[in-house]
Each structure stands twice: as C-alpha cells, then as structure tokens.
Amino acid sequence: MAGSFFQSVYAVVARIPCGKVLSYGDIAKLIGYPCRARFVGYAMRVCPEGLPWHRVVKADGSIAGGDFAPVREMLLRREGVPFLPDGRVDMQKCRAVLLPEIG
Question: What does the alpha-carbon distance between residue 44 and residue 56 come to, in Å, rounded to a whole number?
Fold first, then answer.
C-alpha cells in the first residue's frame, strides 16, 4: 500500500498551483483516505525532488517542517500566499480547489 499511497499523494501535490496550498488532511481526502493525514505527512518527508512540497501545510495553516519551516514560509510568501497576523497561512484565501482524478 505504501508505494501506491505515496504515489497518489505526490500526484496531488504536483497539481497544487502556485500561490495555493492544501493541508495534509485535504490530500488524504482527495486520494480516498480521509483519516490518513499523518500518512500524507510521512509521504512528504520523502517527497521526490521537483514537487512543490512547501505548498502542503497543517489544517490550521501552520507550517510544519522543523528546520525547513522558515524556508517553506519564504517560498510561500514569494508565491503571494497570504498569512494571518499569527504567522499561519490564511487557508480561507488560498486553499487549492482540486477535484480527485478518476482512473
């Protein structure tokens, strides 16, 4: 399951447009595993190069990533992603709207 699950996660991440974000839970729902947000996080830890990994944030707009959080924030700000005064991404203004791919 891990291989196909991870590939499904990466397929969604590849479709997140510049200036938009999705949460780990959003991605889990899109690929048909609504209770697997944590597993999406595991997949993102070994994300292939070239994917917009910085566009995946926590459900409340917080930026995960430990030492990489400042880099993620910088990349998101460069793309024009709006932030709330407390430093979280404004999910209402920039959550990507993606439909699940069929087949």
Answer: 9
Name which CATH class applies to 2-94.
mainly alpha
Express each pLDDT in 58-97 by its tens digit: 999 999 888 889 999 999 999 999 999 999 999 999 999 8
Q: Which of 30, 76, 31, 84 is nearest to 57 (CA)?
A: 76
Residues 6+ apart with CB under 8 A from 89: 21, 57, 61, 62, 63, 76, 81, 82, 83
Judged by DSSP in three states, 101 sits in coil
The phi and psi torsions of 41 (rounded to 5 degrees) equal -60, -40
pTM attached to this predicted model: 0.91
Long-range pairs of 75-80 with CB within 8 A, sequence gap ≥ 24: 76/21, 79/18, 79/19, 80/19
